[in-house]
Amino acid sequence: MLLRHTNKDIKERKALNVNPAKTCQPIGAMYASLGIHGCLPHSHGSQGCCAYHRSALTRHYREPVMAATSSFTEGSSVFGGQANLIQAIDNIFTTYDPDIIAVHTTCLSETIGDDVNQITIKAVKDGKVPKGKYVIHASTPSYVGSHVTGFSNMTKAMVMHFAKSTGKPNGKYNIIPGYVEPSDMTEIKRIVEKLGIKPILFPDTSNVLNGPQTGRYSMFPEGGVTIDELKSSGDSMGTIALGSLASADAARSLDSKWRVPCQVQDLPIGLAATDRFVNALRIAAGVSVPDEITRERGQLLDIITDMHQYFYGKKVALSGDPDHLISLTEFLVSIDMAPVHIVTGTSGKDFEKRIQDITSHLPYKVNVKAGGDMFTLHQWIKNEPVDLLIANTYGKYIARDDDIPFIRYGFPILDRIGHSYFPSVCYRGGIRLLEKILDALMDRLDRDAPEEKFELVM
Ligand code: SF4
Q: Counting atoms of ligand 1 from 1, which one is nearest the CA of 27?
């Protein structure tokens, strides 16, 4: 309906995005902040920004997301937001008593040029931060980057603020899971622990944004990395960062500041990327891969083999976050599907290079764009139709307009559930992804089959 008028005629655009394939930086920063236990995110800007960011997260996770705001008015927009932020810090600790406030900036406070570091130092000096409580901050102007950048900046702020080295190794590994679902964080932790490694996983939104219904509201749910764990991350034996866009900066900061050696891996989505992750853990732990994990790998491989005929040669269009798309593209190529159009809204030439490397041996041209938009993706699809679209909820308009089987994946998903509870990472997550792909493709086969070919067994 809405996209009926998208045409095939692609024109070079530099100054205009139509239907962006990203959301704004503070959303990622807010999401990362929620992965610290006892944290109240704080948006330094106007109420409208904070309301939008909270509602985007609330709609995606279907949990009430709490965050405070500096509530800029015309006055603060002209004279700066220092007074508002100091008052807000005082009010928040007095009223809600979090362990920590994680402040992120917005377009407005960045444009004014508020020095949030200086303001938080002043808040401490003025006695507005109670003993044993903390205020951290990240710069997240939304006219650059995306929600992925915001997540990365806030995750880096965690280690810059808290990590210390006592000189005594803690026997743990830092795992930075990237911008993934709470369910994915649980699964990553499970795999790490199965390999015998004690993780400090941060941020960790499991049991924060996918908690059970208990009948009681808790402003600060059970989950989240603790401040003590974050402090201890400087004593860890190493860091494994998953997803270079979302996690590498924090891992490299730990490395350069506290000599915690880091390796940056792709998100463990699909067989090969999970193999690399498990292999890194195996080497770190000095153990063999447990039978349970090997069995899960075998099950994933079994489905790929059994259902290969349905995957083979199917053209796919993808839109989403760069770290997701790199692993997802590799996975699709490995099962002989044909990713032909790939767009992320997050900028960065490395992304295009990685996709080109993964697809360079394929006998067809792959359209790829970083910093692109969904309008471009739709135009590519108009010129070369696909059998499947994988994108966040906004992809449904393209899917409807061009009658394409559609899988919701990434952020945000505003019209379906499941993503918070069922992982798409590691071997089990790979099985779930394949189930979704097969459901979409085979439902379409059933829908379009003439009566004589409408099979009971496929
Ligand atoms: S893009 Fe900027 S002004 Fe708009 S909601 Fe995000 S932070 Fe606020």
A: 6
CA dist 34 and 41 (Å) reads 7
From 326, 283, 78, select the one nearest 178 (Cα to Cα).
Answer: 326
Q: What is the CATH number of domain 25-162?
A: 3.40.50.1980
Indicate whether residue 20 lines ligand 1 (CB < 6 A).
no
- The residue extents of the domains of the chain are 25-162, 173-292, 295-451
At 2, is the pLDDT very low, low, confident or very high (cuts 50, 70, 90)? low
Percentage of the residues of the chain whose pLDDT score is greater than 90: 96
Judge whether residue 376 has pLDDT over 80: yes
From 46, 69, 107, 148, the mutation candidate for ligand 1 (largest count of ligand atoms within 8 A of CB) is 107
Atom number in ligand 1 closest to CA 140: 7
Q: How many helices (H) and strands (E) are present in the chain, helices listed first?
A: 18, 13
- Domain 173-292 CATH assignment equals 3.30.70.20: no
Condensed to tens digits (0 to 9), the pLDDT of residues 118-146 reads 999 999 999 999 999 999 999 999 999 99
Cβ–ligand 1 distance for 107 under 6 Å, the answer yes
Q: Where are the alpha helices (DSSP H) in 163-270?
A: 182-194, 227-232, 244-258
Q: State how far Cα 281 lies from the chain centre.
A: 21
Which atom belonging to ligand 1 lies closest to the Cα atom of 107? 2
Looking at the domain covering 295-451, what would its CATH class be? alpha beta
Mean pLDDT of 109-123: 97
Residue 145 in contact with ligand 1 by CB distance below 6 A? no
Ligand 1 close to Cβ of residue 70 (< 6 A): no
Q: Residue 39: CB within 6 Å of ligand 1?
A: no
> Mean pLDDT across the stretch 153-168?
97
Going by C-alpha positions, the residue among 352, 443, 455, 430 that lies closest to residue 404 is 443
Statement: residue 66 has pLDDT above 60: yes
**Ligand 1 geometric centre to CA of 143 (Å):** 8
pLDDT single digits (tens) 268-311: 999 999 999 999 999 999 999 999 999 999 999 999 999 999 99
142 lines ligand 1 (CB under 6 A): yes
Could you check whether 173-292 and 295-451 share the same CATH topology?
yes
Task: Please enumerate, as own/partner, the contacts of 257-265 that have beta carbons within 8 Å and a separation of 24 or more.
Answer: 257/159, 257/160, 257/163, 258/163, 258/164, 258/165, 258/234, 259/165, 260/163, 260/165, 260/174, 260/233, 260/234, 260/236, 262/238, 263/238, 263/239, 265/240, 265/241
Cβ(109) – ligand 1 distance below 6 Å: no
